[in-house]
Amino acid sequence: MAHVEAVPTLEEYKANIQHGTTITRSLDKIGENVTNENRHYVKTIAEIILLCARHEIALRGHDETRESLNPGNFRSLLTFIGNHDQIVGKRIKEDPQNAKYTSPEIQNELLGVMGDMVLQTISNEVQRRYLLVARR
């Protein structure tokens, strides 16, 4: 690298350090954005599953292939939301099939986790009330 090229590079480096924009900080910010997008996407999937469960709506359809005209309620709702939510839309269009968290196994696992959370909440409430009664 010639001296003429090195001086502007050094000045840019100094400015980045002064403003706190280092490579590490930039990478941390990118990682934070990816994490937030992943959380948003998985939360959306969980909310769709919860909505269907609360209203006793079947998640899966008879034919869930990409070409299907009726891919099931879960996939239809996810596509609908993806048309209005940039993060979800990007994930369902661009992610590989095995990274979309849409398989029946994942749906069942999320239902199980949410069921466990409900049971834990009920258990905690019962224990709290029992302690209140026992202290009286």
From TrEMBL:
InterPro entries to which the protein is assigned, alphabetical: DUF4371 (IPR025398)
Pfam families membership: DUF4371
Cited PANTHER family: DUF4371 DOMAIN-CONTAINING PROTEIN, PTHR45749
Residue ranges occupied by any DUF4371 domain in the UniProt entry: 17-127
Taxonomy, superkingdom: Eukaryota
The protein, known as: Zinc finger MYM-type protein 1-like
